[in-house]
Amino acid sequence: MELQALLAAERERIDSALDRLLPPAEAWPPRLHAAMRYAVFGGGKRVRPVLVRAACRAVGGDPEHVVEAACAIELVHTYSLIHDDLPALDNDTLRRGRPTVHVAYDEALAILAGDALLTEAFAVLAAFPVGEEHAGRRAEACRLVAEAIGSRGMVGGQVEDLEATGGPPDAGRLDRIHRAKTGALIGAAVELGALLTGASGPRRRAFATFGQRLGLLFQVADDILDVTGSAVSLGKSPGKDAAAGKLTYPAVFGLDAANRELEALAEALTREAEGIEGRGGTLGALVGYVARRDR
Known about the structure:
Layout: H1 3-21, H2 30-40, H3 47-59, H4 67-84, E1 94-95, E2 98-99, H5 101-104, H6 107-127, H7 135-149, H8 154-164, H9 171-196, H10 201-228, H11 231-234, H12 240-244, H13 249-253, H14 255-277, H15 282-292
Antiparallel strand pairs: 1-2
């Protein structure tokens, strides 16, 4: 299936599962659940859950086996976006072409909606795939995701990103921030799909390494888009990184060098994808999509 058609079908399947897993908007307390759904169904690309399912497929499994776990990754991602947009962090008012959650509702509810989505994600990971025979994998999935997004992963990267803002160019620090803040969750998404499908040992580690490097590619592309994109194409405010003095690839290396790094990473990752799934697979196609996206 052509990639754009595949992505559209995947988004539809994931959105259907998210709708099933989340409490209805009218369930008590309704304002909280409405805010959660506002954030989740705001037009996201669903790259992370698609990666969970693509990794499952690459191992030889049925992507339906991991659809709930894929949704859990999207819930984690959405929580991180809500909190990232808060006034105390990036103070952004636009996300996916709509007012951010703290603007559409209020700051307190935005914090609590993020908290609820994070908690819901682990409830889903602990419950699916269903069956006693999957209990060990479910427990390992919870550990894997918790480690990826905790103080030594995504949250730690967010802290160092704040601390580095306004500081001098530092390539080592930039690499550490991007690998933790963005790479850790994307790496966990790829590894999760492989883990829940039975990959272990070196094969599982190959998926984990690929995912972490794909996360770095994603963030390099994001840094470039903040310079070159528009609010219409991005669905969020461009130029905020430079205005805030954020540590980014264009800020440290310049835009031309950042583009060269993007292309080199994409070429290397395409080869890695062929090594773990063969030629013409979904993971390899997603490398090109991540590198050349416009939002």
